[in-house]
Fold protein-glutamine gamma-glutamyltransferase.
Amino acid sequence: LAATQPSTNWHLKENAKEHHTSKFSSEELIVRRGQTFTITFNGTEKPEQNLIFLAETGPKPSKATKTLATFGISSTVSKEGWSAVLQSTSSNSVSISISSPHNAVIGRYKLSVQTGSSSPSSLGTFVLLFNPWSSGDDVFMPNKAECEEYVLEEFGIIFAGNKNHISGFGWNFGQFQGDILDICLSIMDRSLYYRQDPVTDVSHRHDPRYLGRVLSAMVNANDDQGVVLGNWSGKYEGGKNPSSWTGSGEILQSWKKSGFKPVKYGQCWVFAAVLTTVLRCLGIPTRTITNFSSAHDADGNLRVDEFYDADGNHLERGADSIWNFHVWNESWFTRNDLGPSYSGWQVLDATPQEESGGIYQCGPASRYAIKEGDVDLDYDCPFVFAEVNADCMYWNYDSATGKKTLIFSKSTEIGDSISTKAVGRDDRVDVTSDYKYEEGSAKERDVFKKARKKLGLEDKFDPTAPTQEEIEQKPDISGKFKVAGSLEIGKDLNLLLVLENLQSDAKTVNVNMTAWSTLYTRRRVNEIWKDSISVTLAPKEEKQFPIKIKYPEYQQQLTTDKTIQVTAICHVEDGIQVLVQRNITLDNPAIDIQVLGEAKVNKEVVVEVEFTNPINTEVKDCVLQVEGCDLLQGILELRIPPLKANEKSSTKFKLVPSEAGPKHLLVNFSCDKFADIKTFKMVNVIN
């Protein structure tokens, strides 16, 4: 007689609680490696007979690649491999506690059992994940509050703006929602590594270092039809403006629904947020990091060259650039390949900036290696080191003659206010000192020299570098732009150009000024304003020149990044030129969320969103988007009637929270004059 198919009780609730996987809404067992889970099954005639279990994963399971394990009943849990311990038996069922090794391959497994010489019967499938709660795991994180934040928290804050004016917006990571886990597993199976050699790829999936690198490549669409297509043109036809997303769920779902076609469009924070979702989902502790004044050193010389013409226009010459901010990831795991001091936070970057090993992937680069200038260590340390440390050279370029003249150089410009969200609170934490020694300190310069030496830059003559004489030249005047008044869209922009004569004789200065709308990467898009003045400064005199750029002048030209670069090139008679520059990020008007009444599980609660049109023309095409894990399913989109000048709108909608605890509601309001006004509200849901 053929053996009947055993029926399996996976004890989903109990196992999920033990394994910190209760937040997944799955009918399938999801557990973490290196920890026991219990199952009960029947259909084996004599359970006390020799039961042999098979756990297998990947396309060609084998013991050699550690993708197949066969194990019998033992009296204790094995420290090394898979094991099964008998818990209890009854006349027709048996309860078994199964454990996997700390370094097991993660992914979906098929579990079967055989008795005696009969062929194996399938018990079903389960998913095995990384285990940051277990001390033997490469991703072990001793601090439980950090595990909660970096693995289980579905809400995050991403910092943006610029170093003078940091702002943060909420993001819904949503790693436990719907079929996100299945999508994450299919991301791994669509990578170039898997396509070239599926067996080897799956056998490496025990290693967070390997998976972090593979997934940094798969989150961008370059090379492999990955998840998100980048677009830094300022024109987003045929897709969504990168600023309009509020969570990763919609992006990952769109990728799957379209038959795995890249989702349009992303910029750095979108790549970083999606990678956070995928890695947290798989159990690797991960966070987003924002670096202000971030260098993109395309030619690997730890120097970024910026060019300006005589009128003060920023020129697109050379591949180097400085971004107002750049967002990447840090994931937490050990670096057995480098040694204990390099373990801990590792930098991964899914934004496609430079190729590494022939494809657009970046990291893991040990954060400790970056701080110590150990740029020869795997992976991509020189690129990350430059992002936070590169020296800046500002040149004047004459297109008629091709001549370039150094205006000035700065070694303290790059890598400012490196930021991440605090553990357990909605605040910003500055982690700059984890990336580098204090700017301007002797130790910081020593590390920079060490990095240059390791890259062979110290001994090699660089014809593009400025001479020592050029670097040491001293200007006769100094200048800066000061903001006078508010930086709100809809209001006039008031600035002061402050010039000071540093010498004891009078100076005549011709100043050419421009203001351009830019992307957050400082790429120029539209000219907004230009002017020139001639000034005489008495010895040691300081003068202020007011500049007003009216709202109607900049409104049409502004990009959705809301950034303006103001530049003044000061031509000093018989002296060297001085460049004065400021990158300004404007603020959107405020939007207000009120929860009317108490938020209780499975009970309706009304939320009111208020917005006042701050300008004296009508705004139309108003749309409100709302999302939030455990507060509502998917994304709610509400159309709002046009608003007259200075009119206030109030929109009400209902939520039915599904789980107790502190939850975050994210709101995004857009209209024809203001794009993507984002805010979030913490809602405390009670049972």
